[in-house]
Amino acid sequence: MFTSVMFYLFSVFIVFTHQKAWISSDCSIGSSDTLTCKENIPVEIPLGISRVVISNYLRTSISNITFSHVSWRNVKVLDISINPVVDFTVAGFNFYSLNNVNVLGIHSRRFEDIHRDALNGLNSLHTLDFSDCSSLDTTDLVEPLLAYPRTLKFLKLDQIGGRSVTIDGNFINMVAVKKISKLSLCGINMFPVGPLTATYIEPTLKYLDISNSTILPSRSYNFNDRYILLTNMLRNIEVLNVSSLPYSFLDLDFTVIRKVSGKDCLQIFSESRYRYMNNYLFPNMSVLEINDFLKYKIVLNNYVINLTCIGQMNLKYISMRQNNLQWMNISLFLPTDFAVEEMDLSLNKIQYISPQILSGFSYLQSLNLAYNSLGFMQKYEEFSKIFSGHRNLIVLNLAFNSLTNLPVDMFMNNNKLSHLDLHGNKLITLSFKFQHLHGLSILNLSFNGIVALDPVTIKAFNSFRNVIERIENKTAVINLDLIGNPFVCDCKTVGFIEWIFTDLIVNKTQPYSCYYEGEYLTIDKNIIEKSKFLCHRTLVITFSVIVVAIIVTLISVFVTKAHYRSKAKRRKLSKEKFIEMFLGDDFNKNRISFIVYASDDLDDLNKSFSRCLNNNLQNALKTDRRLISNGDLDIAPGYPIIDEVLRCVTKSCTLIALASKKFCESEWCQIELREAYNLNIPIILLFKEDVEESLMSPTMLAVFKKFARAKLIAKDDTFETVPEWNQFVESVINLAIEGTGLM
Question: What single DSSP character describes residue 451?
């Protein structure tokens, strides 16, 4: 037994030292199955290596005996990048010994020639990669590929051809003959050459990537050629990527969106001769990528788009990233069997998207709306209904949308939601209901504006987790990610910080942190204790502040009370002095109020008011002297009216205007009012009825807007004022005193 073990260890040692002996400094073993060499192709391959990469091959060709060593039979993947200044040629039967190679990649900027029999011997080949061969054209590949006796699965021709790459009938026929199911033509300038002829071989192409490519104009390529290309070669396509492709190649007519009503089915192909392709094009397609397809800002407002006439489609995934779809207020009607399960609308700067658009995608399980501007839509009521029709939604990404607040019922119909990504927004709390989302496993709220979650939200989340544990009968693992929020550690947030530290599943590679008195510190037991200390310190400070506040309040009450007493005393002395001066012979005023009213308005209410006001003023001033004036009582006959009006106004301490619609129409009333206003005599507007501002003169409107007014209301044989009568009389006396400058 001991002898067997020693023999085995010795054998392993011999093999290991043998491998190390022949590997030059030009080669290195990276991962367990990959050998990477810089400038040369090794003669022999170490055991266990199935992938060989040559990163900077310096020779102009490959010898037919290069791969003759038996160790090359274990290689499955061979990728050769030629030095950029080397003119490279692939000779016949170069790879004849590589029976087991599945993937062959050759990348040369100066590709000279490829022999007709270059690929013979590659009996297991299913992927051929000529990407980055900028001097290679498809015409160089047709003959070698047709001469190759076996079929291919994947042909990768990304960024080949330099200025142009020929797409002609020979190339299309070769793709069909070799039964290629996956073709990549990314980043090339396609030059279509007609006429094309329809092949009678059933097309096997299922994957086509022509993203970031262009279609060069060609006179020999016409409508019939486009028809053959779309309906023959691409008939069985399942995955199509046309991102960054000029849509003029497809002759799509977007102007029809403005021309059709909601009852008409939209035909997007512009040429009438193949409009029926709307019904039959790509029936097997399951994945469609049209990213960065529309270059200009798209604003569609109040449109109805009917696509129910589109034929049977098997679409499961649609990606429309970066298409400038900024405003989409559209009602969209789709076929009943339109069962898209995943959609990507990120990076579109979307400000508004109508719930009617997304409602047609009722089978959606994953929706990506990240990196848009849906925060703009929060002010609209329909924002809360965007996802109401998606009962099958499992993954929803709303990251980086400038969202500040989500409606309470935002996700009420999304019971199957498992992954909700809201990171990179401006949320400050969990404002939406989540207790019904029993399948929720990831809630990403990182890098928002959350300072702390309130106790009610924390309790709701804990209860939510307990409910899930009872339903699932196991510990609920809900990844709530709050990394990058500006948490604050202080007395008010102690409960939240403790919850973060003890209950939340913390990202160990990036621990949570918070601001503590100006410092950004990691949340741990120490910071929790410091935050609790702030509560005691806050209590002491609060108690001190309360005591000081009580003392200040008592002092303020005392000072205020003393001030009011002093003010009341001054008011009383001012009133006594005014009465003494007013009743004396030397005072320049002889009436408390001058009452102004329209002559057409004279009625019992005016007389009753004047009489009652005079009596109350006489009682207040303890005199029998008449204290009110009007045009009937004090104007001297025979003198100019304007002079008499001015005299009566100047001899009165205040002016009371019985305002009405007729008052506004009276020119003399407006003159009297204007004279009092110009002389700064206190004016009281007493309204007998409602008067529109448009009827008031500029002076009356200025008084109306600047000073408080009163209302006179007739009631049976008497009247009442608003405010009440005693307050009204007191205001008249106080205004009279203030007008003399004594108060």
Answer: S
CB 275 within 8 A of CB 269: yes
Q: For the segment 164-219, what is each residue's pLDDT rounded down to a tens digit?
A: 898 888 898 899 899 999 999 999 998 888 777 766 677 789 999 999 998 887 77
Classified by CATH at the fold level, domain 588-739 comes out as: Rossmann fold (3.40.50)
Q: Pick the closest to residue 593 from 613, 578, 608, 575 (CA basis).
A: 613
Task: Cite the residue boundaries of each domain of the chain with CATH code 3.80.10.10.
Answer: 21-247, 252-453+461-487
- On whether the CB atoms of residues 57 and 94 are closer than 8 A, the answer is no
Instruction: Look at residues 131, 74, 129 and name the one whose alpha carbon lies nearest to residue 97.
Output: 74
Q: Which CATH number fits domain 21-247: 3.90.650.10, 3.20.20.70, 3.80.10.10, 3.30.420.40?
A: 3.80.10.10
- Rounded to a whole number of angstroms, the distance between the first and last alpha carbons of the chain is 123
Task: Band the pLDDT of 250: cuts 50, 70, 90.
Answer: low
Closest CA to 213 of 139, 111, 268, 293: 293
With cut-offs at 50, 70 and 90, classify the pLDDT of residue 639: confident
Beta-bridge partners for 90: 114
Where in the sequence of the chain do the CATH 3.40.50.10140 domains occur? 588-739
- In the structure encoding, which two tokens stand for residue 587, read together? 């005072």
Going by pLDDT thresholds of 50, 70 and 90, the confidence category of residue 261 is very low
164: which 2 tokens?
């142009």
Q: What is the pTM of this model?
A: 0.66
Residue 596 main-chain phi, psi, to 5 deg: -115, 130
- CA 140, chain centre distance (Å): 49
CATH fold group of domain 252-453+461-487:
3.80.10
Q: What type of residue sits at position 97? A: S
Report the alpha-carbon distance of residue 121 to residue 267 in Å, rounded.
50
DSSP annotation string for 263-323 = TSBP--BS-GGGTTHHHHS-TT--EEE-TT---S-EEEEEEEEE-TTS------EEE--SS
pLDDT for 611? 85
